[in-house]
Amino acid sequence: MERSEKREFVESLATIFAETSFVLVARNSGMTVADVSELRRKMRAAGASYKVAKNRLATRALEGTRFQGISPLLKGPTALAWSVDPVAVAKTAVEFAKTNDKFVVLGGALGTQTLNADGVKALAELPSLETLRAQLLGLIQTPATRIAGVLQAPGGQVARVLAAYAKKDAA
Fold first, then answer.
1. Cβ burial, residue 81 (10 Å; 0-12/13-18/19+)
2. pLDDT of 150-160, one tens digit each?
């Protein structure tokens, strides 16, 4: 890479770090091209990005960002993954690491909070953003459903009482 290319790469990574909420660092030593392609496909499906970057350039891109805490993790063959939805990246990486022993999650950063490998695994166990939204919507709709049921109940009870009187009079 020439200096201008390196400078552009550092600037593009710095822009990405400014826009994202979570960055994951993983060791990818000995992975085949097929493995990396499969991981990238899974990351894209989860709405995440995966990139192998030179550690020195990535460290320069991290300077001045809220993710500076992951700089010590950038030693040896490493890769970065990021997304706006932190759970999606963590879940994808942890699931892939279970099936491929050459891919090891080293840690990550959620905003200014630096996470070790166990922290990333705990983050991966959380429900996704879509699941949380669905659960919240369900919680919001439940009281309205109950209120409607309560409001309809007295009318139904009055109708049953009148029907019982009608049957009594007919008999």
1. buried
2. 566 666 666 77
